[in-house]
Specification:
heterodimer, A: 291 residues, mainly beta, five-stranded mixed beta sheet, four-stranded mixed beta sheet, 2 helices, 17 strands, B: 535 residues, alpha+beta, 14-stranded mixed beta sheet, 14 strands, globular
């Protein structure tokens, strides 16, 4: 109810503003605002600017834990390489994947989602993508591409959670979160290794880094912003930027394997399921170390 | 409902509460922290609830670390058992039901007998103030539960098929004993380990054990736990609502029709000839099965507040010479099972107090023990129920999953166990584990060899107690599940009156009737009327 009201308000008040939702993706590279779906009228932001950048990674990348999927041939057969826990995905160019970059402060109003509903897929007993961004109130789809039971257990703090049984391949459910929350952990209890994170923000100015570690957040009103980068293991960093009219500003982020050891990850629980109470991310110190 | 609680009231709940009381000793009540609080539910909450649920309702009272599952955290607005659809707030009545009736299988007692109706209503209203969700959202109407189809054999069979299709066995196991392949890694919303419900014990279901309750749990889920809602599966046409009812009926059928009553005495039926040869022998059918609840050992440190085994089923037969006992209990793993190491880690991390017990996972077997006094007591005098003491030892049957059969021993308190001499060891035993259940059959001659072992006698009440340890739950020594004293009674050879009487009565009736008819046929018609009064 609340969600619906808010969305219609947005539509009425902000019809002239066209923005796109940024889904996230492991493979999608940067998610750019702009473009947009055909069914929403283009919106006008005067002299829009862009924040761009890359998330660098220094130090030794941890060896990722291999997932034992032998008991789930339906899923293991989908993988040509042994599947690993993608907790820290360092790209070939020395950048970091699955970093959620979003405008945390500086926007003076909320902006609605536009474009297609983001999709959280379950494929090969892994979440695709692992990190997803949605706008508060925006419906997103949860899809099961595996011929096996998954339960989708979202455990937010500021929002109401859900726990959906998806026992059949091809099943799709739709949900939304009413309130901004970075991040909402999602867990499959049937396959304990399956974890995803959904970043819920009040506007579509966010991106998730992909295979080249870069991000682009477009179509922003010129002004001063605080941009935050979030990584599930290495925590958050912020950058202060000034977006010039019709220009581009760079917000570089660097995560260091060693310095990140004591990073605070602003998230309820699932960083370390065995670590009750302390929300300090633990960094694997060597190969085979459990997260 | 009251029948469901029989066992808890009788034993378990007082034990859990006693444990809680022990924990609370030495802590003042959260004295008047809320004196300025005008809410009428606040004083009730502070007095009765805060010790477990915390002063601010975050489920972090000082007794919380002694409990698994943990006390509810009211700040999240998540309530496990409710009638409203998944993802929505519970109604006041939903919360009140938990306050009134408590949560079976947990430390949460019912408060109906302790607090007045007004106090309970006030406390429900107060609980809602801990979560901001109640400020902005209204609970919707309860999920309708009409339309339960009639229970039929075909319906139950379909329920089983859908149970497979929905892959309920992933956690609950093929036989519903909570031993599914994913059971070892289940955690609740706060990352604490959580047991998958044993579907064969519906009196332990937190949300009620009848078909409608189960249907609700399936459609709504159990929020804050890994148990998902099937509402989307119904909406997507993966299953129909009726099929969900069928699963609920099937799940209900896994438990006994009536909650097992706590009976003090297990009767060993007298049989002629040989005793059942194995656990599967159909000859066991002559013996009634008795259920005895077990609870965590919370008296001698290191204590254990999170035992796996919550009860044992016992059958017994004897033939005047020899006695056979069959014990079965549910344990989701055949310890030591390396798969369950993460469970052990989680439990050790979650549970207080360590009290000198191990804090790191170990390779431990499952174990079971039955204790008797060394001689049958004349009166009510029995050894101390916790494996005796130095004054009065107990005679013990000890079994281990990694060991070889049953060892007979004398115990003078926990940890002071001495095996009997080899020539005194006369018990034969066999054990097997399948689909989350141990079955142990023990046989022994009634008369023990010369020595310390008990001589069993028919017609006497023989004290009997039980201990169970789940190695994969880090249980060993004083960390385990215990029972109080119960009794074993061997039917007397001369006491078959109960079987003979009906036969005698039938024969007597037959012959009397025959005599009557013959007399009636012999006599003149007019005399029948007066004679009939004879019968």
């Amino acid at each position: 109810m609340v969600t619906l009201c808010r969305r219609s308000l947005y539509l009425i008040a902000l019809l002239p503003i066209a923005l796109t939702a940024c889904g996230g993706g492991d493979d999608a590279g940067s998610a750019a605002a702009g473009g947009g779906a055909a069914d929403v009228a283009p919106v006008q932001i005067d002299n829009p600017g862009t924040i761009t950048g890359s998330v660098a990674f220094t130090g030794t990348a941890p060896t990722l834990e291999t997932i034992d999927m032998r008991d789930e041939p339906v899923c293991s057969d989908k993988h040509t390489e042994p599947p690993v826990q993608r907790t820290v995905v360092v790209n070939d160019n020395g950048t970091l994947s699955n970093v959620f970059v979003w405008v945390r402060e500086g926007l003076t109003q909320s902006y609605p989602a536009q474009g297609e509903a983001p999709v959280l897929d379950q494929d090969g007993c892994l979440y695709q993508p692992r990190v997803l961004g949605v706008v508060s109130g925006q419906p997103f789809e949860i899809h099961n591409s595996d011929a096996v039971l998954h339960n989708v257990n979202a455990q937010p703090d500021a929002n109401r959670g859900f726990n959906i049984s998806q026992p059949q391949e091809g099943m799709t459910s739709e949900r939304s979160f009413s309130t901004a929350e970075v991040m909402v952990p999602v867990q499959c209890d049937v396959h304990g290794w399956m974890t995803a994170y959904i970043g819920v923000v009040d506007h579509p100015y966010f991106a998730v880094t992909g295979g080249d570690g870069s991000f682009t957040i477009e179509n922003l009103p010129p002004g001063d912003y605080v941009v935050e980068a979030w990584h599930e293991q290495y925590g958050t960093q912020t950058a202060n930027v000034t977006v010039p009219p019709d220009g581009t500003v760079e917000a570089p982020f660097t995560y260091d394997a060693a310095a990140a050891r004591n990073a605070i990850v602003p998230l309820g629980t699932p960083i370390d399921l065995h670590d009750h109470g302390a929300h300090v991310a633990t960094v694997p110190t060597d190969a085979g170390d459990e997260e | 409902m009251s029948a469901q609680r029989t066992i808890w009231i009788a034993f378990l709940r007082p034990a859990v509460l006693a444990g809680t009381a022990l924990v609370l000793t030495g802590h003042a009540q959260s004295a008047g922290a809320q004196e300025a609080d005008a809410h009428p539910g606040a004083p009730v909450y502070d007095r009765w609830c805060a010790q477990c649920h915390g002063d601010e309702g975050a489920g972090d009272g000082y007794a919380a670390a002694y409990m698994l599952p943990r006390p509810r955290d009211f700040t999240s607005g998540i309530y496990q058992i409710k009638t409203t659809p998944a993802g929505t707030l519970p109604t006041d009545d939903d919360i009140l039901r938990m306050v009134d009736d408590g949560m079976p299988g947990t430390a949460m007692p019912g408060w109906e007998g302790t607090l007045s109706a007004q106090q309970r209503r006030d406390v429900v209203d107060y609980l809602k103030t801990f979560s901001r969700f109640f400020e902005t959202e209204e609970p919707p109407d309860p999920l309708p539960t009409g339309g339960e189809p009639r229970v039929t054999d075909e319906g139950l069979a379909e329920g089983r098929v859908v149970y497979e299709q929905l892959e309920c066995w992933r956690c609950h196991g093929q036989q519903g004993r909570g031993d599914g392949p994913s059971a070892f890694e289940q955690t609740d919303q706060d990352g604490f380990p959580i047991r998958t419900a044993d579907l064969t014990q519906n009196w332990q279901f937190t949300g009620g054990g009848e078909v409608e309750n189960i249907y609700r749990r399936m459609m709504i889920g159990v929020e804050g736990t890994p148990m998902p809602s099937q509402a989307d599966a119904v909406q997507s046409g993966v299953v129909t609502e009726e099929q969900v009812w069928r699963v609920a009926q099937y799940v209900r059928s896994l438990s006994p029709e009536d909650t097992p009553r706590l009976r003090e005495v297990a009767r060993a039926a007298l049989v002629e000839g040989s005793l059942p040869a194995s656990a599967a022998d159909s000859a066991w059918a002559v013996a009634d099965e008795f259920f005895f609840p077990l609870a965590g050992q919370i008296i001698v440190p290191p204590r254990w507040f999170a035992p796996t085994v919550n009860g044992v089923w016992v059958q017994a037969v004897h033939n005047g010479e020899e006695l056979a006992l069959k014990f079965r209990w549910h344990d989701p793993s055949n310890s030591p099972d390396p798969t369950w190491l993460p469970w052990q880690e989680n439990v050790l991390a979650a549970m207080q107090p360590a009290e000198g017990g191990p804090t790191a996972p170990q390779t431990l077997p499952d174990a079971f023990a039955v204790q008797f006094p060394t001689t049958i007591p004349e009166g009510m005098d029995r050894p101390y129920f916790l494996m005796g003491d130095t004054r009065q030892p107990v005679y013990l049957w000890q079994w281990e999953s990694l060991g070889d059969g049953v060892t007979e021993a004398l115990a003078r308190g926990p940890g002071s166990t001495t095996p009997l001499a080899p020539e005194q060891q006369s018990v034969r035993a066999e054990a097997s584990w399948e689909e989350g259940e141990w079955v142990l059959v023990v046989r022994r001659a009634l008369a023990a060899p010369e020595g310390d072992a008990l001589d069993f006698e028919a017609g006497r009440a023989i004290p009997m107690g039980f201990f169970a340890w789940d190695g994969d739950n880090s249980e060993a020594g004083t960390r385990g599940a215990i029972s109080t004293w119960y009794y074993l009674y061997l039917d007397e050879p001369g006491s078959n009156a109960v079987f003979i009487l009906p036969v005698t009565a039938t024969l007597l009736t037959f012959f009397l009737g025959l005599a009557f008819v013959m007399r009636a046929q012999r006599r003149p018609r007019h005399a029948v009327k007066s004679d009939s009064s004879l019968s």
